[in-house]
Design brief:
single chain, 332 residues, alpha+beta, Phosphorylase Kinase, domain 1, Transferase(Phosphotransferase), domain 1, 2 domains, 6-stranded mixed β-sheet, two-stranded antiparallel ribbon, 16% strand, magnesium
């Protein structure tokens, strides 16, 4: 088959059984993202999901670690095409708090490699769980300690809001914003990741829709907006809902949202007005919980934009600290 200009619509990749759409090859070449398999060294497996696996590796002679993602199991040409499309999306992201792309290797064998920056400090969810005792404070905690922890957590929220504001301005809808999909690099900067990158893709966090065991689409129900659950509608405002849940995760020390609630009845509970209570944490004051509640308005148009959220969170940090510290490291 040929494209409208007479060129082949897809090209056979040397050393692979896959054919890659011509426009994908063109975009990867234009962005100088194409890498040769001889330049890539795989070191150890750092994450594995249902459909993909992530390795720590190195590119060329550099000693800098990278993350290398590839498909696993049985997959067809359509899944390979979608996998390469993921890399094209990442290739256009240029923001401090959004995961970017280093390169793509198409001659790796049965499935391409997507090469990304290595997130040395893992997922935000893993960090929150590890630090829960230092994040969730009792009413007896020292006031200065409460303020310091609150500032740290709000800076995390501001980094995520900043990244999501960038994605929203680019008309990109994430659909799976959660603490497990926010990664922390070697300099303790949060970067929003996508495409099931996190190794903590636990079965219990997802509900399989449209089929029996092994079939259908897996959905992160407890992070999804009501309109996404009922009508399959996703937008910036559905991402805002997920941001509210992610903020709740941060201030609860990485606890699972809606504990004990069956995902099958969650949509009914939300439509009846139920919302998660304020995290049992002195650090989470009424202002912060109010931001979560704003994100959980039933009507999407009543929720704030990410630009508004970033402003609200930044102002809260400034009021609490007396000034806004740019470059403040929330993990130290």
């Amino acid at each position: 088959m040929k494209a409208s200009d007479g060129s082949p619509s897809s090209l056979q990749v040397p050393g692979s059984r896959n054919r890659i759409p011509t426009y994908h090859m063109r975009e990867l070449s234009r962005g100088r993202f194409l890498l040769n398999i001889d330049d890539i060294t795989l070191l150890d497996c750092i994450g594995e999901g249902e459909f993909g696996i992530v390795y720590r590796g190195r590119v060329g002679l550099t000693k800098r670690d990278v993350a290398v993602k590839t498909l696993k199991g049985d997959f067809d040409q359509d899944e390979v095409d979608k996998f390469v499309e993921e890399s094209l999306k990442m290739g256009r992201f240029k923001h401090a708090h959004v995961m970017g792309l280093i390169g793509v290797c198409l001659d790796a064998g049965s499935a391409p490699y997507i090469i990304m920056p290595y997130m040395a400090n893992g997922s935000l969810l893993k960090y929150l769980k590890k630090e829960r005792k230092n994040i969730v404070l009792s009413e007896e905690a020292d006031e200065d300690e409460v303020k310091e922890v609150r500032k740290r957590l709000m800076v995390m929220c501001s980094q995520i809001a900043s990244g999501m504001e960038y994605l929203a301005a680019d008309k990109y809808v994430h659909r799976d914003l959660a603490a497990r999909n926010c990664m922390i690099d070697a300099h303790f900067v949060i970067k929003i990741a996508d495409f099931g990158l996190s190794e903590d893709l636990l079965e219990k966090n997802y509900f399989r829709q449209g089929g029996g065991s092994g079939e259908g689409v897996k959905l992160p129900v407890k992070w999804m907006a009501p309109e996404s659950l009922s009508d399959g509608h996703f937008s910036e405002k559905s991402d805002v809902w997920s941001y509210g849940v992610t903020t709740w995760e941060i201030f609860s020390g990485g606890k699972a949202p809606y504990p004990g609630t069956d995902p099958l009845i969650l949509i009914q509970s939300l439509e009846q007005g139920y919302r998660m209570p304020q995290p049992y944490n002195t650090v989470c004051n009424e202002e912060i919980y109010g931001i979560m509640i704003q994100c959980w308005h039933m009507a999407p148009e009543d929720r704030p934009t990410f630009k508004e959220l970033y402003c609200s969170v930044s102002q809260s940090i400034e009021r609490d600290a007396g000034y806004l510290q740019f470059g403040f490291n929330p993990f130290t």
